[in-house]
Amino acid sequence: MFKTYLLAVVGVAILSLIVHLVLPEGKISKNVLYSFSLFTMVVLISPIMKLSNCIDFSNVTYSLDETFLNQNQTLENLIQSELENHFAGVKAKVVKNGETEYIFVDLSKVVLNNESEHINYYQAVKEILKTQFEIEDERVVIYG
User: Fold this and answer.
1) Do 19 and 77 have their domain in common?
2) Are 83 and 92 in contact (CB under 8 A)?
3) How far is residue 130's CA from residue 127's CA, in Å, rounded to a whole number?
4) Which domain holds residue 98?
5) Structural domain count, the chain
6) Does one domain contain both 31 and 87?
7) What was the pLDDT predicted at 29?
8) What is the pTM of this model?
9) What pLDDT does 6 receive?
10) Is residue 40 part of a domain?
């Protein structure tokens, strides 16, 4: 296998040298030499590609980042308990999209009492999240 690989590399190098000597100067020469350099790269990389086909990736295991999960769960629990102090039956969920965390708040099961009957719940939830957790309004999704 090594002998075949070495012959292919030497053959491409010699062919590239001959083409370089025969071609006249100009724009076409640059394009042809670029094509030969790409072809040379393919020949040089081909054993690596063959090797990657032999590797069995079916037994590879992936681990979750426990720190990320714990931080996300902790923030969710803090938000949930803070909102429950103000509104009975509220549910909060933290979802991370890239670097940005979004807070989804479900108000469908909030229990109304006589004192809080005329409160704008949407605004109240956003205000609590902004003052207690410094979460911008754009990152809060309220439904229900």
Assistant:
1) no
2) yes
3) 5
4) 66-143
5) 2
6) no
7) 81
8) 0.49
9) 83
10) yes
Q: Is 90 exposed, middle or buried (0-12, 13-18, 19+ CB in 10 A)?
A: buried
Helices and strands in the chain: count of H runs, count of E runs: 4, 3
Residue 48 lies in a domain: yes
**Of the candidates 129, 116, 125, which has an alpha carbon nearest to the alpha carbon of residue 144?**
125
Whether residues 72 and 113 fall in one domain: yes
Does residue 101 sit in the same domain as residue 32? no
Looking at the structure, tell me whether residues 108 and 129 fall in a common domain: yes
Positive/negative CA dihedral, 15, 20, 21, 24: positive
Q: Which H/E stretch holds residue 7? A: helix 2-22
Q: Would you call 99 helix, strand, or coil by DSSP? A: coil
Q: How far apart are CA 28 and CA 16, in angstroms?
A: 15
| Sheet order of strands, 140-143 included | 91-97, 100-106, 140-143
Residue-by-residue pLDDT tens, the chain, 144 positions: 678 888 888 888 888 888 888 888 877 888 888 888 888 888 888 777 766 666 565 665 655 556 655 666 788 888 888 888 888 888 888 887 777 788 888 888 887 666 656 778 888 888 888 888 888 888 888 887
Determine the Cα–Cα distance for residues 101 and 120; give it in Å rounded to an integer.
Answer: 24
